[in-house]
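Internal QA ticket QA-208
Title: Verify multi-chain structure generation after dependency bump
Assignee: T.L.

Test input:
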Amino acid sequence: MYHPHDTYLDVRYAETDAMGVVHHSRYLPWLEVARTDWMVALGTHYSEIERLGYFLVVSEIGARYLRPARFGDRVRINTHLKRVRSRQVRFEYEIFRVGDGDLLFTAFSEHILTDREGSLRRFPPELLAMLEKNQDERAAASG
Amino acid sequence: MYHPHDTYLDVRYAETDAMGVVHHSRYLPWLEVARTDWMVALGTHYSEIERLGYFLVVSEIGARYLRPARFGDRVRINTHLKRVRSRQVRFEYEIFRVGDGDLLFTAFSEHILTDREGSLRRFPPELLAMLEKNQDERAAASG
Amino acid sequence: MYHPHDTYLDVRYAETDAMGVVHHSRYLPWLEVARTDWMVALGTHYSEIERLGYFLVVSEIGARYLRPARFGDRVRINTHLKRVRSRQVRFEYEIFRVGDGDLLFTAFSEHILTDREGSLRRFPPELLAMLEKNQDERAAASG
Amino acid sequence: MYHPHDTYLDVRYAETDAMGVVHHSRYLPWLEVARTDWMVALGTHYSEIERLGYFLVVSEIGARYLRPARFGDRVRINTHLKRVRSRQVRFEYEIFRVGDGDLLFTAFSEHILTDREGSLRRFPPELLAMLEKNQDERAAASG
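Actual output:
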């Protein structure tokens, strides 16, 4: 079943830069928060995955900055799992400003599963099944 | 004339995360340092551009994480200007670990020129000329 | 009336470092979030103060790190206004781990009011009155 | 022998905030860079200490912000070891703007030595001897 998820964050002053807007690097930790939330909504905390000795490592990021976010803004991050492979997942994100609803930012992130030594690993079957059940079916059909 | 530029940085402890490696978001400020250095090597400090009322805003980022960087590593960021348009530039980057020479990370960044209010602006002629003179000619030929 | 305030935050992965715990510098943005929340609870957003041309600038920080916070932890930041002067305020903070209730961190921050040019300013009377009404009376009595 | 040490850093754009100056939290990673440099100047890299299973954990920070640093500024961080105990060290720092020489910031940091599990440990004799030899003698005399 398709499982998109919304995470709400208030822009922190420390996330702004001298242009008066959120620094472009600060969106990546937001995506990480959103992924963590997405997993919590599914019943797993990412720290559990690390406790089992697995690490979901970022292998690729693509991001488009459409409109600036500012201190005082509240943003909504819509996250969905776009694709699951035996060793790899792809998340996609849209960030909106709550209030005017403007789309500020879109991104994807690719992740690979590794062990503590950094070697590529396959998802444990239960985790893979859980992820597959929750990926965007439209994507799975077309991808 | 093609103008690549090398910037050297030592990984800061504060840039690592609980995986024991540099957090993926920390590479973006490194690219910003590298762009600043690239401009300094050409005789302009980016703060001068802002003093003239222009802002070079990040509009897109693409990044591939190939191997982790760790505290204690020294990295070399090779930067070059891939493409200049009247209102837009694209930089490309490769980050290597000094020592073993391993390629750790590749990325591009697209930037648009705006004024203080965020409206799109054309590069002032002298700045445009300077940028055009220093873009990667191989890219200009093929692009 | 004494006005302490609780802010709840989930530790972000990006806030951890290679020791596996929250990096000591990451607590300062948390305090900033907590101050912002404290003001919102009083009916003012800090961005409004900046819109009036005032800046509450950090002039001093003191912090004790008692126990580490980790990814997966939820923390509670208790904030109170310890002292108000015509141009200066002091906030104090305690950070607890939700769950075991352990005290992780204590801190204070001193702030001065400036204008856009960085010159020292007095609080506007309404803002001063609002702050004075909400400082810790026990402190005001003994201080 | 008294061993103060100077570290030079260029302000990064990502270190600024919407006030147009360096965010107060960003000075703490600078102090960490300065401590690392201080140790390198003595012939030890901090990552070696961690490889031996020791962690130098920040237990207290005190910082005064005197004048803002801005993007485009180069700063000099003067570091010295103020005090060594069997399980604890105290560093002190002054940060100056290169150019006008203005003192921008002063701070101290207290650190305790722990093992990987976070238990307090004594410095290994050679490391303690090295540290004692390099602390500020004036402080040792008066402290």
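Spot checks passed. Helices of chain C lie at 27-42, 46-51, 125-133, 137-142.
Status: verified.
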